[in-house]
């Protein structure tokens, strides 16, 4: 199995080992575009793997900070209390780059940049760039994807 993320089309595709499309989701990548530099708030390109899966069994809309559930469940009222918060909800698929110098090691290390595929508030717009570098998904979609893919699943992030 392999995941293909198209930044241009704001889509995540799940492919089987033969390249057959199994499922497609609308996502939201970085508002700042693509890039690998630490601190850039851009979505890194290239080959990655899912290094860790976080949040199994948590309720939809569970709020995570530093990959730990806070005990909060996202609501519009909670969002009003914390208007500047970057909401990471429901499940986390933590990505690790596979290409030294492009997205692994040094100042371009995807994992050290804490780049995830994760759930977002239902109010977050999908299909347009809007994240701080991660790949955002609808909560129902990230739950479905999380349950479908094992750790070390290949993830290719492409500009086209």
**Secondary-structure class:** mainly beta
Extract low-pLDDT stretches: none
Number of helices: 2
Over all CA atoms, what is the radius of gyration? Answer: 15 Å
Q: What oligomerization state is this entry in?
A: single chain
Would you count the extended β strands for me? Answer: 10
Specify the overall morphology.
globular
Give the helix proportion (percent range): 10-25%
Q: Could you report the average pLDDT, rounded to the nearest whole number?
A: 97
Question: How far apart lie the N and C ends?
Answer: 20 Å
The main sheet comes to: 10 strands, mixed
Strand-residue proportion: 35-45%
Q: SSE order in H/E notation?
A: EEEEEEHEEEHE
Summarize the structure.
With 160 residues, the chain is mainly β. The chain is built from two helices and ten strands, in the order ββββββαβββαβ. Strands 1, 2, 3, 4, 5, 6, 7, 8, 9 and 10 form a ten-stranded mixed β-sheet that branches.
Q: Could you explain how this protein is built, in words?
A:
It is a single chain. 10% of the residues lie in helices and 36% in strands. With 160 residues, it is mainly beta. Strands 1, 2, 3, 4, 5, 6, 7, 8, 9 and 10 form a ten-stranded mixed β-sheet that branches.
List the helices and strands and how they pair.
Elements (H helix, E strand, L loop, with lengths): L1 E5 L4 E5 L5 E6 L19 E9 L7 E4 L2 E6 L2 H6 L6 E10 L18 E4 L15 E3 L1 H10 L5 E5 L2
Parallel strand pairs: 1-10, 8-9
Antiparallel strand pairs: 1-2, 2-3, 4-7, 4-10, 5-6, 5-7, 7-8
